[in-house]
Amino acid sequence: MKKTGLLLVVMLLALPLVYADSHEYAAWTCPEGFEGQTLSIFNWSTYIAEDTVPNFEDACGVSVNYDIYESNEAMLARIRQGNPGYDLIVPSGGTVQRMAEEGLLIPLDKDMIPNIPNLIPDLLNAPYDPDNTYSLPYQWGTVGVGYRTEVFPDGITSWDQVWAHDGSVAWLDDRQTMFGIAHLFLGTDPNTTDGDEIVAARDYLLERGGNVVAVAADDGQVLLERGEVDIAIEYNGDILQISWDCECDDYAYAIPDEGSNVWIDNLAIPVDAPNPELANVFIDYILDAKVGADLTNYIWYASPNQASIESGFIDEEILNDPAIFPTPEQVANLFAIIDVGAEAEELINNAWDEMLIFLGQ
Amino acid sequence: MLTADQQLINEDAMSRNRMVRRLGVIGLWLNPVFSYFFLWAPILVLVLFSFNQSRSVASFTGFTLRWYGNILNNVMGAESAFSTELMLNAFRNSLFVGTVATAISTVLGTMIALSMARGKYKGKRLLDALLFFPVVIPEITQAISLAIFFKVVFDWLALISGERIFPGFHTIIAAHVTFNISFVAIVVRARLADMNPQLEEAANDLGANPWQTFWLVTFPLILPGVISGALLAFTLSLDDFVITFFTSGVGTTTLPVFVYGLLKLTVTPEVNAISTIMMVLSTFFIGISLTIQGRAVARA
Amino acid sequence: MTTWLARKRESGFLLAVPTIAWLLILFVLPLVIVLIVSFMSRGRGGVAIMPFTIEHYQRTLGIFSIILWRSIGLAALTTLVCLVIGYPLAFFISTRRNRLFQQVTLFLVILPFWTNFLIRTYAWRILLGDEGTINGFLLSLGLIDDPLPMLNTQFAVLVGLVYGFLPFMVLPIYASVERFNFRYVDAAYDLGANDLRAFLRVVLPLTLPGVLAGCALVFIPSVGAFVTPDLLGGAKGLMIGNLINNQFGGSGNMPLGSALSIVMMAVVMLSLLVYLLANRRDRGA
User: Fold this and answer.
1) Closest Cα in chain C, distance from residue B229 (Å)
2) Taking CB atoms and an 8 Å cutoff, what residues of chain A touch B83?
3) Which domains does chain A have, with CATH numbers?
4) Which end of chain C has fewer CB within 10 Å, C or N?
5) What pLDDT sits at residue B297?
6) A13-18 — which CB contacts under 8 Å span 24+ positions?
């Protein structure tokens, strides 16, 4: 944990938000020879700008199948069953490691991705994919607490406020993240493989789950928006999207002082992809300064694209928002999820099922 | 001869009976009022919000036809928002799956219904059970059994031929046909049971071969049943989520699967608009089918 | 061989062969595979591997039985509520003298079911939410001071299930009441029965087949419901269908999910057996 934490400190501190004036920018052009081909993308829901795909289709003269998933688990399940024909997926860090180990990813063709230097160098060569053999960053962010400002006028600074809240709360349906938060309090490694520690984390959460009305898979922000919960543990971008939608200050996002989870989602090509060449071209397209900036401006996650940041294409409002780009003090307490291996995976799975069963009692 | 006491008791019982009956009558009228309200309130909410000004369906902010406009624009081939395009694509996928699955299951279901109604062989009880089970088995059990089955079969095929088959429309359609066959067979059999077999015998006696008998006598008579069965199958196909979810592949997102993804996120009134359109279309189709059936009944 | 074929053709059995083959391959065989998988061990990523084990059944009947019983209970309650609402409704529809009015009332029960099931269930989220239609109405009337927590409870799941399966109760009962000859009631009255006795002794027994069929048709899909608790139940309304679905995610447990399905199917088969026995006794009587 210490090592990954340290690495992240270094990595995220290295994000000085320098707004240089616009460089000369030439619009992305598609290499020739792909006209009429098809690309199949499998991405998280609400994780792309409205025009990202249509513009790519126009630029390359190709057509794109676009399917969505709600969790790494769901995507992984589909690919494990035998890739049903996707060319491009967006797994988070730990999932990249798992998939690479299981032989579910094929190496990127970096010659086809000249835009790699646009990326923030410190986000490359992460421990889950040391040489970026299989993956390149798409967006990154944190898990934290989305809340109604009306209920918490003074904000949220501690997880204890979440546990003790007298009202409705939604948790995130992400077992490793939720147990990881418990491990922060128990002083154990968020990526522990020890059975007793996993059970302890389960019990820790269960004791504090009396106010939980939903364990939401990526839709906690909707519950918050409809007033069904006062607090939702969620990904930062999801909470920011509803604030943006309502154009109001009713919702806010905070990373509690005790720490939380940081994640990087990555572009990768699954094994048996029918058209890996075009997938490489699409990755290059996403890493373009303007395309990447448009994406970030729409979905409000942190961009890994130095060129997008420096070119001034990203709204300043986003660059200056600590909910999107956390402060160095916050970064110090963030933990990343890594793959824990088959045995611990089963222990975590069992503990999570048991937690769900008893949570509803 | 009744004594006065007995008479009193009797009258008492009768008035109590009258009261019970009056309460019963009130109850009998209150129940439908409540039931229809219960059945229709969510639908009204659904339709109402398809005209909602704001993008959310949390509260009604004003009247607009914008969402219908978006859909219409796309249908007319104009440029439209990516999300609208995705939804209509899902709708087209649903229609495609529904049509093909209905065609296959109607043929297969009608065949087994005919065979069981007119055939002379043993073991029909076993066939009954075979047709009955897909109807009563929990959807999620059937869904996971098909998911595992396709995985096993495709793994095995990849092993012996080196070529991997991916789930797609064929797996969804195969799954839909499997749960539809029984429904078609049940509806067609009900129709066959009502039919007078002497008509076929008469045709036979008049020198028609079995083929002619079928197309000239049996088929026209069971046609309303076949149509009802097909409509039922089509509706089930169009509405199925669980089984499709577990058997779908790339680019085969059907409307229910798409809607499920949306429900987990923000539902825009556009979804309500297309549901309203679907409901109006279904009403129209059911109306036609009822008319056809009504005519057939009138003629029979 | 040819004579066998000819004999089979004669008997009309050949006509059924394609359908039988289809169902054997795509229905029976997959279920057999699930049964086998349910006895296998969990491998990396939740897939099934050797050796055989019964641990998933131990877990299913152990800790998971809490949710299994809840699912059975909710399904039974759903069936009861559907019966209480559906029986009088079916009676109301089938006793309309005006043929057109009768068709319209029947049509009004069926029509909502041509809207997407997910959307219909979802509409209840709008109705039952803390800031939803019902709470808004009650608050504005001043009947309550704080919104009633209805969504994300077992109550919401019950409402959703009743809403989803009510027509399955109404239609079979409607069919049996349609066939019912009301002269029997007159006969009962002539023999001195009061309303209650006439109902219990004459009407109910004669419409019982419809009631039993309706109960089976509501109970079975309710036990295995997955969408309704998923959309309306939240953490408190979890049902066995959700837990089965969870096992098929990336780090779930396919053999455990299979074992849960098999046990659930056994529950359904048991309830069917009860149905068939009740039906037979009813016919015998």
Assistant:
1) 15
2) 50
3) 2-140+264-327 (3.40.190.10), 141-261+330-359 (3.40.190.10)
4) N
5) 53
6) A13/A328, A13/A331, A14/A120, A14/A121, A14/A122, A15/A120, A15/A122, A15/A325, A17/A309, A17/A319, A17/A320, A17/A325, A18/A309, A18/A310
